[in-house]
Write a structure and sequence with these properties.
Layout lengths: L16 H24 L2 H22 L5 H19 L3 H8 L21 H9 L6 H11 L5 H8 L3 H17 L10 H22 L3 E2 L5 H17 L4 H14 L25 H17 L6 H14 L8 H14 L3 H15 L1 H11 L10 H12 L3 H14 L1 E2 H13 L3
Parallel strand pairs: 1-2
Length: 428
């Protein structure tokens, strides 16, 4: 046993055992829930058992110290509780025959019957929570809760909807999966294709939460990015003829290539224009280029939303400096994306590209109408972008007010500090 939390935990986690436990659980809970769900075949019960393991950690770790492998400790504790639950069920004998002894020993899993099957509990959990019996909103909220480890407040922030709405979606989704006896599996054939779009959306949302954390003290949550990228790669291998699968993988490869350059020595955010591009991972960029080529090769019609976003990311990856970026192409691609998948957030991103291609005044004409969009009323990036445009136009007093408003809306401490710093730059 170790008396210290993981080395990559936040500084206050290394001095506060309870904070350390909560930090570890947030990182490890998706794997614990997925592993337990394979045993109990109920995602709601799996989440409860994972929470039970957290309670046990809160009781034991402050007294005995944080284990050397806290994730394995949580998994073992939750699995033992799952096996105890199965034993208490009337159909214990049949269930035990199905799961064997692998849940409490190190014996290998049985080979899947289907040659396309993959032994990945996280992927099974994604397809289960993206079942068609759930609404699209419920699928995403539940998956972000179970795989992303997000609180209902953080999910509400990501969805731009009230927190009680998200809480109701999650409760109803877990109840629906249980009452409809949805299998914990990766589907095959038409069922897999029907669920694919929702799965891709969920994986992308998980990645985004890791790429720019909604709340907390850290700007990045690398474990979420790694899980999402791994799932995208697995899907690409599983469905080689689906262009949007390759496009999503390409997009995440490109985005991940910038990770090392996106934070400074103290973890502070570094904006795209200020990043040292020599720190971008050229191997991941090469993987992104290859995946985008596979998406283009398998496409039979107009590019999908992930193909367009991957093409935008490729424009950034091909530019060795910020000034060399092909902003006109990016603005055109965002225009196509807005036509393909209309969204005020896409329009806001298009405005950023237009500001670089045509100037801040042209972009402000796009941004100003967005201030009336109800969905963006609490979205901190809207006043942030508007503040940047106003600052470039020399309207510093207005820009400062926008940056301060954006800081007030931001839930991530690192992002709030950045926005306040930008506000101070606009001081008279």
């Amino acid at each position: 046993m170790s008396t210290q939390p993981p080395a990559d935990a936040p500084a206050d986690a290394r001095t506060d055992p309870r904070h350390a436990i909560e930090t570890v659980f947030r990182l490890e809970s998706p794997r614990v829930i997925a592993g337990v769900a394979r045993i109990v075949r109920d995602v709601g019960i799996a989440e409860e058992l994972a929470q039970d393991a957290l309670v046990a950690a809160l009781e034991q770790w402050p007294r005995d110290g944080v284990p050397d492998n806290p994730g394995a400790w949580l998994m073992a504790t939750a699995r033992h509780r799952a096996v105890d639950l199965v034993r208490r069920r009337e159909n214990y004998a049949r269930k035990l025959a199905e799961i064997g002894r692998s849940t409490v020993t190190t014996a290998p899993q049985e080979e899947p019957a289907d040659p396309e099957d993959i032994d990945d509990d996280l992927l099974r959990l994604v397809f289960t929570t993206c079942h068609p019996v759930l609404s699209p909103e419920a699928r995403t909220a539940l998956t972000l809760r179970l795989l992303g480890g997000l609180t209902t407040a953080e999910i509400a922030r990501a969805f731009l909807v009230p927190e009680p709405t998200v809480a109701q979606r999650i409760v109803r989704a877990k109840r629906t999966l249980a009452t409809r006896n949805v299998a914990f599996e990766v589907p095959y054939g038409p069922d897999r294709e029907a669920r694919l779009g929702s799965v891709l959306d969920v994986i992308y949302l998980i990645y985004n939460e890791g790429y720019a954390a909604t709340a907390g003290d850290d700007w990045l949550r690398p474990s979420l990015c790694e899980d999402a990228l791994r799932l995208a790669r697995v899907l690409a291998g599983l469905m080689p003829k689906e262009p949007e699968v390759h496009a999503l993988a390409s997009l995440l490869e490109f985005q991940s290539s910038r990770t090392a350059a996106r934070t400074g020595p103290d973890g502070e955010p570094v904006l795209l224009r200020d990043q040292n591009r020599r720190r971008w991972n050229r191997m991941l960029i090469a993987r992104g280029i290859r995946a985008l080529a596979r998406a283009d090769a398998t496409a039979t019609g107009a590019p999908g939303p992930y193909a367009l976003q991957a093409a935008i990311a490729a424009c950034h990856a091909h530019a060795y400096t910020y000034e060399e970026t092909d902003w006109r192409s990016i603005a055109t691609l965002y225009g196509l994306l807005a036509a393909r998948s209309p969204s005020p957030v896409v329009e806001l991103n298009r405005a950023v590209a237009v500001s670089m291609a045509e100037g801040p005044a042209a972009a402000l004409e796009i941004v100003d109408p967005l201030t009336a969009e109800p969905a963006l009323s609490g979205y901190h990036l809207l006043p942030s972008v508007r503040g940047d445009l106003l600052a470039r136009l020399g309207r510093t007093a207005e820009a400062r007010a926008e940056f301060e408003r954006a800081a007030g809306l931001a839930r991530n401490e690192r992002e709030r500090e950045l926005l306040l710093a930008r506000a101070r730059e606009c001081a008279p």
